[in-house]
Amino acid sequence: MKTLMISLILLLNFAHAEDAHKNHKSMQMSKESHKHKEHKHGKSNEAFNNVLKKYEELHSAFFENKIEAINKLAKDLIVEIDKIEDEKIAKTLTYTKKKLKEISEKDNIEIKRDAMDTVSQGLLVVLEKHAPNKSYSRYYCPMLKKYWIQNITKSEEVVNPYAGDYMPHCGVKK
Q1: Which end of the chain offers a freer environment for a tag, N or C, measured as fewer CB atoms within 10 Å?
Q2: pTM for this predicted structure
Q3: Alpha-helix runs per DSSP H in 64-130
Q4: How many angstroms from the chain centroid is the CA of residue 66?
Q5: How many CB atoms lie within 10 A of CB 60?
């Protein structure tokens, strides 16, 4: 009787282990097939990463006070934003596009800088909530109370786009 009980317990444990193994295998297959599917979110990240690259160029133009380049790059950035297919991200960046248009059309550098702060904050919302990218970080200038984004894989040295001529390295990574 004892042998029969032990045999029964072992058989039940074996059956349970076999069932668990099947479930594990199906979860693994599900995980693999999930990896290979193309997601709208993945496409959005790719499109947004292109926006960030164009933003980097605009950031540099502001840092160097290159007005003609600022005007052109603001227009180019609008074109990159328009390529984003994710409706939520595109809607989030509607006001950002308006401010980029303002940057491209206004002559006054201070108006351009104020608009750039708004552009940066709009892009930061997407970067931090919808399309994360660990290569980029939020920076802040406490003197001017303005934000921007920097690619930290290229340099973590503060490059202030709002005060490049008189406080080029004023700011902190947030």
Answers
A1: N
A2: 0.75
A3: 67-82, 87-92, 94-105, 109-129
A4: 26
A5: 16
For 145, the token pair is 């109370």
Q: Quick one: tokens of 83? A: 């390529």
Q: What is the dihedral sign for C-alpha 80, 83, 86, 92?
A: positive
> Residue 48 is inside which H or E element, if any?
helix 40-63
What length does the chain have? 174
96-117 residue pLDDT tens: 999 999 999 999 999 999 999 9
Residue 6, judged by CB atoms within 10 A of its CB (0-12, 13-18, 19+), counts as: exposed
Q: How far apart are CA 103 and CA 119, in angstroms?
A: 10
Tell me how far apart the alpha carbons of residues 51 and 77 are, in angstroms, rounded to a whole number. Answer: 6
Q: How far apart are CA 155 and CA 150, in angstroms?
A: 8
The two structure tokens encoding residue 90: 């595109």
Q: In the Cβ-directed half-sphere of 59, how many Cα atoms lie within 13 Å? A: 24
Q: What is the pLDDT of residues 122-153, one digit of tens each?
A: 999 999 999 999 999 999 999 999 999 999 99
Containing H/E element for 63?
helix 40-63
